[in-house]
Amino acid sequence: MIPRFILKRSWTARMLDSRSRIMSPFYAWKVTRANGDGHVMRVRLKGIGSICLRACENDFATVEEILLKRVYDGVVSAIDPPATVIDLGANIGLVARYFAAAWPGSRIFCVEAHPETFGLLARNTATCGRIRCLHAAAWSEEKDLSIECADLNFESAHAVEAGAGFPARGLPMDRLMELSGFERVDLLKVDIEGAETQLFSGPCEWLERVGAIAIEFHGNSREESGFDSKVQAFGFAITAPDKGHTCLALKAPSSKRRPARRA
Prior knowledge:
Layout: H1 4-7, H2 11-19, H3 25-32, E1 40-45, E2 49-54, H4 57-67, H5 73-78, E3 84-88, H6 94-102, E4 107-112, H7 115-125, E5 131-135, E6 137-138, E7 143-148, E8 158-160, E9 166-171, H8 173-180, E10 187-190, H9 196-199, E11 212-216, H10 221-225, H11 227-232, E12 236-240, E13 246-251
Parallel strand pairs: 3-4, 3-10, 4-5, 6-9, 10-11
Antiparallel strand pairs: 1-2, 7-8, 7-9, 11-13, 12-13
């Protein structure tokens, strides 16, 4: 731990002290001194292991959000260990790796639309056979989309129907579930930068095969998507309010339907 009298004087020292809680002092110094040019570095995170990050604030903020602020701890503690997880907006794979460490028996299907971010996702999950990845965007229907990104910081990359960004294929939830190979999804994690309005805009019968949803809303997407009424119609109870990050919806045991047996 860095002495307090140094912490009071130096922003760099304060950042080092914070990041040393989730990585060794060597990697904390490496990350803090990165020049923000987006180059890829490999660091070792406590409880996660080796992972590739870009030298940009968005990737650093993702690490701190998950491992320092522990924004998904409530999800892990609220549900039984899931056999199947779909991660929509998987980013660089840190949440998938966090879930894989928390739930050693789970199978995880990751979906990410930004091509460069998807490349890091694939690298960061390659050594875990329980994680599979798909380059696509969650949408209301199957169609070609454009992935827009405000700057080289990779923050708020989002899908639009027409644009000059990176191409990606938009897929509806029932198709994504088919590609996952899961008959039932015990946990659906959603962080798709506003496209949740598209995800819930069409028929939602796929919710019959989902046990829990952990979703981050953007702007007023919760109201625009009609999320509350739609999931409640399929037997979900919203157990955690949307205060800054994850809203958790759980299906009551009596509402859980067993998947049909294969012939």
